Amino acid sequence: MADAAKGRLLFAARDLFPPMGGASLSMIPLLRAFARAGYEVTSINAARPGVVDHVAPDMPFTAHVVADALSLAVDRMHRRPPDLVITQGWGSTGVLRAAFAMGLRTCLFVVDLIGYAPQEGLEGCDIDYASNLGALRKADMVVANSAYTRRRLRELSGVRAEVVFPIIEESDFLASPESARLPRTFVTLASGLAHKGVDIFLDHAQRLGRPCLICGPLEPGREARLAACRNIRHLGYVSDMRPVYAHTACLVVASLLEETFGRVIVEANLNGIPVAALDRGACRETLGQGGTLFATPAELPEAVRAALRVPPHICRENAARFASAPQIEKALVCIENTMRRPHHSR
Asked: What is the dihedral of CA 20, 25, 31, 32, to 10 degrees?
């Protein structure tokens, strides 16, 4: 454990152990890096229902997983005030408000725009955009996960964010060298949720001319449509995507959301797999030359055919733009700069 020579960091957010998505997968290696750099790091995150409060093992920082994460985070802020409070995602506004009330420095990692602007596919969600934007404006440091996100935050709030791309630990997603000899035949959709484009995929899968896979939970009510698509296999939740990537010829990203990065694009490209991506949000920025964009759902089949013509080495070159080591260094600079800035209690 670090000796806190560089200061105490408190990360408080809803999800981290186990990681529930790209934001969690990115934050864990960052917290490891902060601890290695000499900070005393504590993480407080929410436990899933039915899970007993515990400390996550095998981490170079203290990681509390508890039912009432916000209450414990607030208690820690009172009893042993950190030099910097870091947060992200759902629940971040509550963490920021608690830190503001105690005059603590804050750093907000913005991992999506769901809390800051209405999103297609999530209509009807009860979200207080004004409150979330107000908290964002008061944070000492805001870190965006793409240049697109930085621009949108500037438009929505006037805040000038720093950019740190998501941390993607290559070894966690690279298929084994032996898998290179396996036939890559499938067109794969990484999520079966509606806002991730499952309906687009189901509508057009039979026009793709290839066997298809859907990973993750299937949106309720789509079972009959899935059964009618004889070329689709639903895998359900997949904790390790490497075997899937070993058999994937093209990955489809058809999210209806204003995507702020699209890390599965990089995961696929790391394996030399091209991507057909709906041109939403930051997908254009992340995809680069590693596949093909499509503007409307009807264009998906042609986009897949075009993506399949992209050579594997071009995909890998695109993925290399997002190598994790430089992004970790940028995150460390952001933390150091925030700690040095003059701070005035609110």
From this structure: 120
**Angle, CA of 62, 65 and 67, to the nearest 5°:** 145
Q: Minimal CA–CA distance to 47: which of 82, 84, 74, 72?
A: 72
H/E/C letters for each residue in 200-211?
A: HHHHHHHHCCCC
Q: Which residues are CB-neighbours of 249 under 8 A, at least 6 positions away?
A: 184, 185, 186, 187, 210, 273, 308
pTM, 2 dp: 0.94
Q: Is the peptide bond before 18 cis (omega within 30 degrees of 0)?
A: yes
Ordered mean pLDDT values, 10 residues apiece, the chain (346 residues): 74 91 94 97 94 94 96 96 96 97 97 95 86 97 98 98 96 84 90 95 96 95 95 94 96 96 97 97 98 98 98 97 97 94 61
Rg (CA), the chain: 21
